[in-house]
Amino acid sequence: MVSARQSANGRAGTRCRDCRAQTLSRWARRASEYYMVDDRVWEDAGMEHHGFLCIGCLETRLGRRLNRADFTDADINSLDARWKRYAWWWRTPRLADRLSAPSPGEGIQLELW
Question: Domain range holding 19?
Fold first, then answer.
């Protein structure tokens, strides 16, 4: 059941489904793990469309670390500091690390003969 207070502040249901950590802080400038991954990643983790997982629980479900290829191009995932609403100070260090982590094979150049 959602209380009127939770509903009013818009944070009802933003706890991680597995560990119950708050993924979206209601306090300004408090680090959060609010992000959007590709549908295939979410489905691989056994999640339906709605719900929240912290980065650690999502990685546990997937059995691997996330990298930037796992995230959508939604503004909330932007690495551009001009997006003050989604600025780096707002993210946990773990989320910031995954948003900037190279994709597997990225940076590897193959030379064909």
Answer: 12-100
Identify whether 76 is part of a domain: yes
pTM of the model: 0.76
Question: How close are the terminal C-alpha atoms of the chain, in Å?
Answer: 64
Domain membership of residue 79 (yes or no) is yes
pLDDT in tens, the chain (113 residues): 233 333 334 455 889 999 999 888 766 667 789 899 999 999 999 998 789 999 999 999 999 999 999 999 988 888 776 666 655 567 888 998 999 988 887 655 555 65
Q: Which residues of 2-31 are buried (b: 16+ CB within 10 A; e: fewer)?
A: eeeeeeeeebeebbbbbeebbbebeeeeeb
The total domain count for the chain is: 1
What phi and psi values does residue 71 have, to the nearest 5 degrees?
Answer: -95, 150
**CA-CA distance, 92 to 47, in Å (whole number)?**
22
